[in-house]
């Protein structure tokens, strides 16, 4: 007997993010239909991406007719920028962009950087919010390379594939090691068990 699938909303206006998650979702047999919703959420400037995601989901959860999640991510240049742009990633991308970040770095060989993602899920059956996080470590490329992906992908070289930037990987390759892919696996595991 076929069970009726429930809807789950991914609340985002970012189609690149949605496409990555949608690709991951297609690989799973799970009892949900994934639907993109570009709802207006409240975005605060907080000290962690988890707090930003928590605030966003709280700002819409009372209007939701089904379970839904938001995802917030940040790019952190740990060496030499002590984690900048981090929670300011969106603003920095809009202002100085990748070129501006590269101009702040002299020694690329010693650079260290990571992406982090936080998913905040409003799980309707329990009326509760759950968090799923993921991180990927790497360094900064001295040149922008590749034309896949989005945002800071052309300047991030993951430790797992040290010859390529994220923007030189296919979506499937990026998903298999990325911050978003790791957070997503935790979400899927939760949805399977609950
Ligand atoms: P937000 O999660 O949409 O607020 O993302 C903050 C900033 O980080 C935006 O400028 C995004 O373009 C960038 N960003 C988020 N996720 C990724 C990613 O997977 N790769 C590259 N840049 C990203």
Q: What is the topology?
A:
Layout: E1 6-11, H1 15-26, E2 32-37, H2 49-60, E3 67-79, E4 84-86, H3 89-95, H4 97-103, E5 112-123, E6 128-140, E7 156-158, H5 171-177, H6 179-193
Parallel strand pairs: 1-2, 1-3
Antiparallel strand pairs: 3-4, 3-5, 5-6, 6-7
Helix pairs in contact: 3-4, 5-6
The protein binds inosinic acid.
Inosinic acid (IMP) binds next to strand 3 and helix 3.
What's a quick, concise take on this entry?
The chain is of the alpha/beta class and 194 residues long. The protein has helices at 15-26, 49-60, 89-95, 97-103, 171-177, 179-193, and strands spanning 6-11, 32-37, 67-79, 84-86, 112-123, 128-140, 156-158.
Overall number of domains: 1
Range of strand content: 25-35%
**Ligands (ions, cofactors included):** inosinic acid
The CATH architecture designation is Alpha-Beta Complex
Number of DSSP helical runs: 6
Structural class: alpha/beta
Name of the level-1 CATH class: Alpha Beta
Unreliable sequence segments = none
Calculate the mean pLDDT score and round it. Answer: 95
* Structural shape: globular
- Might you state the CATH topology name? Maf protein
Write down the Rg.
17 Å
* Helix-strand pattern: EHEHEEHHEEEHH
Helix content: 25-40%
Determine the N-to-C terminus distance. Answer: 20 Å
The major pleated sheet works out as:
7 strands, mixed
Q: Please tally the β strands and state the result.
A: 7
